[in-house]
């Protein structure tokens, strides 16, 4: 299992938005320069963050702003906003275990409960961290 780079890009985008929004208009081009990627990738992630209610985007000269306080945006909020694979399952199960094989016939029964428990613990861990944690660490690192 691997969380895609969209998660860390989204955390970067939100942190940069919080950091720069006092003095700058936040645009996809500006964020792309900070992240080091194409602005189209940033715009796609911004769309997902907006849909999740984490940012507000004003067309034209408006730019982007956080829709919630840093303390109110958890890693779980960001994960759920940008990770597009099965929202209800952390692990994707292979599709066609062989029913004629004793292992294939029973693998779901043997494994599903553990995977559900792992998924639950993963989400509980993500809830413990907020964007405020990342922002504070970033500001400390900038200060040296």
What is the CATH architecture term of the domain at 5-87 and 130-143? Orthogonal Bundle
Q: Give the radius of gyration.
A: 19 Å
Largest sheet data: 2 strands, antiparallel
Order of helices and strands: HHHEEHHH
- Number of helix segments? 6
Mean pLDDT: 91
Strand proportion, as a percent range, falls in 5-15%
Low-confidence stretches: none
Instruction: For the largest sheet, list the strands in their spatial order.
Output: 1-2
- CATH C-level class of the domain at 5-87 and 130-143 is Mainly Alpha
Task: Jot down its keywords.
144 residues; Arc Repressor Mutant, subunit A; two-stranded antiparallel sheet
Characterization of this structure:
The protein is mostly helical and 144 residues long. The protein has a domain of 97 residues: Winged helix-like DNA-binding domain superfamily/Winged helix DNA-binding domain (Arc Repressor Mutant, subunit A, Orthogonal Bundle), CATH 1.10.10.10. The protein is 58% helix and 6% strand. It contains 6 helices and 2 strands. It is elongated, with a radius of gyration of 19 Å. It starts with a helix and ends with a helix.
